[in-house]
Amino acid sequence: MHATGQVIAFNLNKAFSLEKLQSGLNAYLPADIAVKDIYEVPLDFDPRRHALSRVYRYTIQIGKIRSPLRSRFVYEVKNPLDVENMAQALTLIEGNHDFSPFSGRMDPEKSSMRTILRTEVCRVGPEVYVEIEGNAFLPQQMRRTVGALIKIGTGSRRYNYLKDLVDHGKKGDASWVIPAKGLCLLAVKYQRFPPVNYADSKNDKT
To answer: What is the CATH number of the domain that holds 88?
Structure first.
């Protein structure tokens, strides 16, 4: 999986300006990691527990010829996809549901209830973006959801396949776990921080 909006927190024993701290971190981090923004937060801030929602995108490339430059970031589908039908089908799972049919291994004592706040499927050139915003996600939930959605897009499953899985499926019934390489965490949203602008990342090919 990739991320353009991952959030981490750490404590310092010495004071630095935010600008100096950001430039220093980027000077020592490996080439595939960069600090885009930096904030001073309360000591009790927890990046995971204080998050209001997360936004994930899965990128699918349509076509019979693979793209060597994009192969690390997309899942390739040779057959055409009905993007409009996929978008409408995905809206059927918005809201609060038991998403255990879309989950991999998880602690049986933990709840599998999650709230999907927003969904979107759109096509830009040869690529199809599936974006889902939720309060939290189960293990493999995004990859299993998109796998089931691809089946709808190719016509091998009917329009309400996702909704049937949510309403009547058993744990892990959405068994197709597509590769992680097409998955990207776009944003984690918090009440205390300014709104995250991730719209421009639709044109980000990194």
So the answer is: 3.30.70.660
